[in-house]
Amino acid sequence: MTIKEITGIIDGTVICCEEKLSTPVEYAFASDLMSDVLTVEKENLLLITGLANLQVIRTSEMSDIFCVIFAR
Predict the structure, then answer these.
(1) I need a labelling partner for 11 at 20 to 30 A (CA). Which of 22, 59, 69, 70 fits?
(2) Residue 6, SS3?
């Protein structure tokens, strides 16, 4: 499934990196604990979180997560 398909299903809004909408996603991980996110060792991972702060972006960068869904 691609990021564009996921965006359509959840009626989401893309905030940045629209050139990556055709990137395939193999796994999704939902967590509000960024320490748990750091333990996941998968590629092509999408993060779903209710947190909306800079720590989410930093954790995503460290974990090579290329897509974050901010839920709620």
Answers:
(1) 59
(2) helix
The terminus-to-terminus CA distance of the chain in angstroms comes to 22
What is the DSSP code (8-state) at residue 52?
-
Q: Supply the pLDDT for residue 56.
A: 97
Encode pLDDT of 3-57 as tens digits. Answer: 999 999 999 999 999 999 999 999 999 999 999 999 999 999 999 999 999 999 9
**Any residues with CB less than 8 A from the CB of 72 and at least 6 apart, and which?**
50
DSSP-assigned states of every residue in 2-39: BHHHHHHHHT----S-GGGTT-B--EEEE-S-HHHHTT
- Environment class of residue 26 by beta-carbon count within 10 Å: exposed (0-12), middle (13-18) or buried (19+)? exposed
Cα–Cα distances in angstroms (integers) from residue 25 to residues 8, 35, 39, 54, in the given order: 14, 22, 18, 23
